[in-house]
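Input structure tokens:
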């Protein structure tokens, strides 16, 4: 079966059938939506995909964090098929469907926002979840401004683009919405030189407090929005001690703390959400936005907040035609069931332990590996020209990615400098597949480092 297979490349890439489809793509689609890899998928199972030429790839990108339970899980197929035979669509502003209610009830039980009395609404994408979280925070607090961070990625809609740090995602799209202010995220690898970790965390906490003096008074800030692990920003985890400081600052000024768990959620961190770690130390967020792996590939996103917060939202501000689509809700309920039953949080930690120990050995072996970081098996490897200067090495990363895919491993870059290789492998990957992927990746690193 494909889900148990190992990578196998039979043709030069792209193969003849894939090349023909990619040529059609160039004529039918805008070039701004880039084709990153020389393959055209025909089917996928588990962590593996097969292209139209019969080449088999191990996918360590997983639709950028969408496929935590893997491709084509048979139980998801059955759940969606069963729902499709009843009805495809029911808009919750018009008629209630129970799938939405069942999923909201489940989310209210498992999403670790501060208030134990919770409510959940659904949308379609991560960007929509973030936009709704901000609207909810503003409506509840009656305040106009939000604080976001360097390195942040929150989506490609207009507000989300304004919130996103890397302006390559929003070049020439202004003017942007007002009231979005940016603080410095604790990127410890590139933090103040000579500081200990504790000193660096204090430094970043102090910098955040300066926003109230130099950008927006605290009484005008509705929410502070952050990713528990920055995704596009380079897989940079928010240090727990810094999160505690942010929570304390929010509480002192009546500001809501919003966790963007679009990429981090649903078992990748070793818990259902990274915010579970926050909750254990008394700094749970007020609002959590989730998406990506929530429904195994069917478009769905969620915003969960305390009952008091949703009760403060004015009518008409939130909602939408497709939010909580019945097919997506059926899939999401099954995804959560699979994660819990198959103990994918624990599996995430097993995968992380193997990868982290391997990456640590590589870090000693290759001067070009400057940092290895992450939470659970949401990990990044940062490549530099040398450890002393820490100069980013994006060309090296690009070469590694292209060589790896030629040998059947699909990986992707991240980071402000595109010099981080991200690890987003489906959590259902087998041990032989994981071992094979590590061998392919190290071979690619070794060859590309030697060829610099």
């Amino acid at each position: 079966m494909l889900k148990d297979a190992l990578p196998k490349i039979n043709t030069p890439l792209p193969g003849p059938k894939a090349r023909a489809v990619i040529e059609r793509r160039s004529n039918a689609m805008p070039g701004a939506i880039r084709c990153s890899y020389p393959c055209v998928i025909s089917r996928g199972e588990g962590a593996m995909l097969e292209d139209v030429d019969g080449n088999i790839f191990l996918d360590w990108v997983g639709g950028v964090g969408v496929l935590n339970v893997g491709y084509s899980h048979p139980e998801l197929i059955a759940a969606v098929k069963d729902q499709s035979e009843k009805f495809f669509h029911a808009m919750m502003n018009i008629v209630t469907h129970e799938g939405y209610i069942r999923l909201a009830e489940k989310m209210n039980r498992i999403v670790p926002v501060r208030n134990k009395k919770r409510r959940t609404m659904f949308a379609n994408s991560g960007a929509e979840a973030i936009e709704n979280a901000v609207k909810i925070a503003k409506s509840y607090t009656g305040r106009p401004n939000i604080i976001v961070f360097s390195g942040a990625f929150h989506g490609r809609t207009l507000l989300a683009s304004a919130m996103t740090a890397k302006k390559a995602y929003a070049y020439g799209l202004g003017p942007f919405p007002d009231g979005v202010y940016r603080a410095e995220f604790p990127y410890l690898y590139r933090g103040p030189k000579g500081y200990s970790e504790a000193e660096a965390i204090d430094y970043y906490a102090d910098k955040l407090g300066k926003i109230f003096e130099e950008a927006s008074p605290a009484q005008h800030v509705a929410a502070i929005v952050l990713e528990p692990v920055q995704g596009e920003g380079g897989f940079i985890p928010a240090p727990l001690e810094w999160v505690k400081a942010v929570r304390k600052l929010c509480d002192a000024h009546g500001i809501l703390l919003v966790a963007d768990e679009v990429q981090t959620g649903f078992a990748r961190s070793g818990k259902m959400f990274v915010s579970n770690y926050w909750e254990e130390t008394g700094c749970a967020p007020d609002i959590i936005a989730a998406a990506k792996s929530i429904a195994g590939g069917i478009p769905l996103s969620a915003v969960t907040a305390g009952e008091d917060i949703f009760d403060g939202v004015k009518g008409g501000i939130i909602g939408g035609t497709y939010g909580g689509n019945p097919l997506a809700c059926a899939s999401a309920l099954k995804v959560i069931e699979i994660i819990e039953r198959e103990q994918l949080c624990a599996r995430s930690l097993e995968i992380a332990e193997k990868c982290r120990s391997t990456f640590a050995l590589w870090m000693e072996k290759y001067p070009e590996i400057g940092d290895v970081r992450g939470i659970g098996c949401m990990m990044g490897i940062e490549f530099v020209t040398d450890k002393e200067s820490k100069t980013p090495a994006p060309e090296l990363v690009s070469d590694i990615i292209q060589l790896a895919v030629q040998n059947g491993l699909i990986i992707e870059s991240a980071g402000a400098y595109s010099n981080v290789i991200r690890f987003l492998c489906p959590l259902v990957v087998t041990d032989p597949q994981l071992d094979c992927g590590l061998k392919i990746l190290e071979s690619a690193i070794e060859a590309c480092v030697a060829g610099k």
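The radius of gyration is 22 Å. The domain at 78-341 is CATH 3.40.640.10 (Aspartate Aminotransferase; domain 2).
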